[in-house]
């Protein structure tokens, strides 16, 4: 037994392969946990699960999605930050966890900058400015005119004070030089249900969740994010077309990070496989079906996206004199 233990590293060295390098080549050695701060069945959940399934044969181990919804993504991000830094726990995190929470909360159990290491950006949820079907407007300009004519009369479904879609409410009211009321809800599905029921006038949501309701004329899609108009809603202009490309909710990106102490070799391996997947036509077709734009890239590119978003979010919090909770 003792001779075998001593012989293994000697044999590897004789072959010109350092023992620690051989250990790294064994990665992943067991199933990989993917922490996702979203509820099961949500659109984000579907995309991350499809990605995890498609990465399994490439990595040789299953990727198991662990849903930890709620709390502005704080519980999920914290659980991931405190996991062992061996590459077997990944974090599918969004703009809230990696940018907004730094400005929203006075105390966080995790450090968005120091605790994580970017692997790759993943995708951006194509969202839109949605209105209830019975609202007497047919396009975004008519919505703006109504908001200006009756300041404070239109209410917006949000996730609560100073969340990303509430920041968008404040930004849009400022942009239109009017006021918009906020009605908080605990999650996107309740917001959409309230919009369809006519309980609120407008909101900003991922377009994919509104497809069925739009077909039933219960919801109107008046403007969309992304670089071009969507084939599902050809009459809805992009935010860029209406001069609202800086709307905070347009930055609804998701990416994958891991613990800051994870090795370069593991990060490179994961990045390579993710980028390859996001370039495959079948996967791109799936993303399009979810009204989602893939944007996988290098760790450095994702780090730049996070940094740019933090800077702009910080400016918004200062602009609107928002104090930390």
Would you write up a description of this structure?
This protein has 325 residues and is α/β, with parallel strands linked by helices. It folds into 2 domains: 162 residues, D-Maltodextrin-Binding Protein, domain 2, CATH 3.40.190.150; 98 residues, D-Maltodextrin-Binding Protein, domain 2. Helices cover 42% and strands 19% of the residues. The protein is built from 12 helices and 11 strands. Strands 2-1-3-10-4-11 form a 6-stranded mixed β-sheet, with helices on both faces. Strands 7-6-8-5-9 form a 5-stranded mixed β-sheet, with helices on both faces. Helix 3 links the parallel strand 1 and strand 2. It is globular, with a radius of gyration of 22 Å. The N terminus is likely disordered.
Residues in helices, as a percent range: 40-55%
Numbering strands along the chain, what is their spatial order in the largest sheet?
2-1-3-10-4-11
In CATH terms, the superfamily of the largest domain is Bordetella uptake gene, domain 1
Sheet of most strands: 6 strands, mixed
> Can you tell me the number of structural domains?
2
H/E element string?
HHEHEHEHEEHEHEHEHEEHHEH
What does the radius of gyration come to? 22 Å
Strand content: 15-25%
> With helices defined by DSSP (H or I, 4 residues minimum), what is the helix count?
12
| Low-confidence blocks of residues | 1-24
Mean pLDDT over the residues = 89
| Rough outline | globular
Using the 3D structure, state the CATH architecture of the largest domain.
Answer: 3-Layer(aba) Sandwich
């Amino acid at each position: 037994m003792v001779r075998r233990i001593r012989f293994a590293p000697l044999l590897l060295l004789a072959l010109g392969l350092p023992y620690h390098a051989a250990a790294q080549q064994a990665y992943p050695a067991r199933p990989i946990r993917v922490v996702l701060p979203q509820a099961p069945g949500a659109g984000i959940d579907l995309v991350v699960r499809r990605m995890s399934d498609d990465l399994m044969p490439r990595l040789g181990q299953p990727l198991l999605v662990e849903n930890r919804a709620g709390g502005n993504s704080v519980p999920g991000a914290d659980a991931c930050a405190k996991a062992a830094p061996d590459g077997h726990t990944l974090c599918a995190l969004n703009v809230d966890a990696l940018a907004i929470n730094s400005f929203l909360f006075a105390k966080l159990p995790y450090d968005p900058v120091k605790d994580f290491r970017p692997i790759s950006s993943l995708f951006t949820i194509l969202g839109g400015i949605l209105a209830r079907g019975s609202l007497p407007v047919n396009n975004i300009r008519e919505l703006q005119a109504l908001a200006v004519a009756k300041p404070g009369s239109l209410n917006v479904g949000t996730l609560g004070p100073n969340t990303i879609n509430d920041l968008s409410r404040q930004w849009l009211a400022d942009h239109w030089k009017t006021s918009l009321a906020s009605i908080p809800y605990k999650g996107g599905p309740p917001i959409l249900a309230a919009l369809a029921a006519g309980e609120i006038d407008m909101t900003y949501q991922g377009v994919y969740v509104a497809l069925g309701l739009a077909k039933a004329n219960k919801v109107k899609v008046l403007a969309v994010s992304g670089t071009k108009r969507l084939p599902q809603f050809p009459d809805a202009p992009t935010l860029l077309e209406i001069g609202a490309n800086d709307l905070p909710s347009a930055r609804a990106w998701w990416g994958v990070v891991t613990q800051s102490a994870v090795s370069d070799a593991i990060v490179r391996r994961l990045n390579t496989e993710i980028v390859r997947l996001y370039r495959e036509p079948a996967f791109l077709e799936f993303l399009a079906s979810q009204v989602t734009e893939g944007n996988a890239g290098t760790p450095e590119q994702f780090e730049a996206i996070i940094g740019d978003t933090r800077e702009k979010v910080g400016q918004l919090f200062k602009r609107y004199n928002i104090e930390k909770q």
